[in-house]
Write a structure and sequence with these properties.
Structural class: alpha+beta
Strand content: 35-45%
Number of domains: 2
CATH topology of the largest domain: Nuclear Transport Factor 2, Chain: A
Low-confidence stretches: none
Radius of gyration: 22 Å
Mean pLDDT: 87
Helix content: 25-40%
Number of strands: 4
CATH class of the largest domain: Alpha Beta
Order of helices and strands: HHEEEE
Distance between the termini: 74 Å
Strand order of the largest sheet: 1-2-3-4
Shape: rod-shaped
């Protein structure tokens, strides 16, 4: 049986870390939502309406989305994470929202 030297062990560790990093980046790219998906999620959470304002901010490898939706005299602000989770939601009625 052949002994693995220190250089061999370091090579194996570096290779494993590189493989994990590649897998993590691929998983992030596969699991993140795009703008169209985020809009659909926001509209579903608000119960429909018209998007009157949107903001997209970059956070590393993914974006975060913020939408303001008006439906009649009701408004809703929805924040969507880069993975499609609703991170925050605020609702109101009347003219308390500026647009």
């Amino acid at each position: 049986m052949k002994k693995i030297g220190v250089k061999g062990i370091i090579g194996i560790i570096v290779g494993a870390v590189a493989a994990l990093a590649i897998i993590a980046v691929v998983a992030i790219m596969f699991l993140r939502v795009n703008e169209a998906e985020a809009r659909q999620i926001a509209l579903q959470q608000a119960g429909g309406g018209e998007i009157v304002e949107q903001e997209i901010s970059s956070e590393g490898l993914w974006n975060e989305y913020s939408y303001t939706i008006v439906n009649g005299d009701s408004w809703c602000e929805v924040e969507i994470s880069g993975f499609g989770n609703v991170e925050g939601m605020e609702t109101g009625t009347g003219n308390s929202y500026r647009y």
